[in-house]
From TrEMBL:
Protein name according to UniProt: SM-20 protein
Transcription regulation recorded as keyword: no
Keyword Transport: no
Entries under Pfam families matching the protein: 2OG-FeII_Oxy_3 (PF13640)
Keywords: Dioxygenase, Iron, Metal-binding, Oxidoreductase, Vitamin C
Domain Fe2OG dioxygenase: 89-190
Length: 202
């Protein structure tokens, strides 16, 4: 699937599922970039950030440019997609932030929105999966709901799969996995200003 096909899906449905967005080699290279040290994931932003293991139990590590070639290659690829969004849908996307996510067996992320309408600058959510030899029996699915709360789609974390959706439109959850599960969660953001300064990326 090309970037234009993803753009068309978002324009038409608000949601896109692209298998093979990453090649097997790209998945392998990114897997070798997984860190030794992880941080407990939080909910909320800036002063309102806090941990709540009743809502989410994953561990995260933010991606940084200029440290690992595979990560730089991925960020360049996501920058190309950002430009396509801006060129064809005029979204005004300003920045892309992303982190590795690790779910140990039994970890989950309860149903939530990535952004609330009018209250966040996260516009488009992306999820990339790095799980080689994953089967549906391993669990760890993402469940996406319609804005009215009805079920939309359940997707298992297949290696190389990119799931993209409008952050304000779709509540979603991550079900517990039976083995360790890795992904890259990312968000294309608008530039929310705070006074005279550019909004911090996270």
């Amino acid at each position: 699937m090309s970037n234009l096909a993803i753009i068309d899906d978002i324009a038409t449905h608000g949601l896109s599922v692209c298998d093979g967005f990453l090649s097997a080699q790209e998945v392998h290279d990114l897997h070798t970039c997984l860190p030794a040290q992880w941080s407990q994931a939080t909910i909320g932003r800036e002063q309102k950030q806090h941990t709540n293991t009743q809502i989410r139990r994953d561990k995260i590590h933010w991606l940084e440019r200029g440290r690992q070639p595979a990560v730089d290659a991925l960020l360049a690829k996501m920058a190309d997609l950002q430009q396509a969004f801006n060129r064809h849908l005029f979204l005004g996307l300003f920045e892309y932030e992303a982190h590795f996510a690790k779910y140990n067996p039994g970890d989950f992320y309860a149903k939530h929105y990535d952004a609330f309408e009018g209250r966040s600058n996260r516009k488009v959510t992306t999820v990339l999966y790095l799980n080689e030899d994953w089967s549906e029996q391993d669990g760890g699915e993402i469940v996406i709901y319609n804005p009215d709360g009805s079920h939309r789609q359940t997707l298992w974390p297949k290696a190389g799969r990119l799931v993209t959706f409008l952050s304000e439109a779709f509540p979603h959850e991550v079900l517990p996995a039976k083995r360790q599960r890795f992904s890259i969660a990312g968000w294309y953001r608008l530039n929310g200003m705070s006074g005279q300064r550019v909004d911090p990326i996270r």
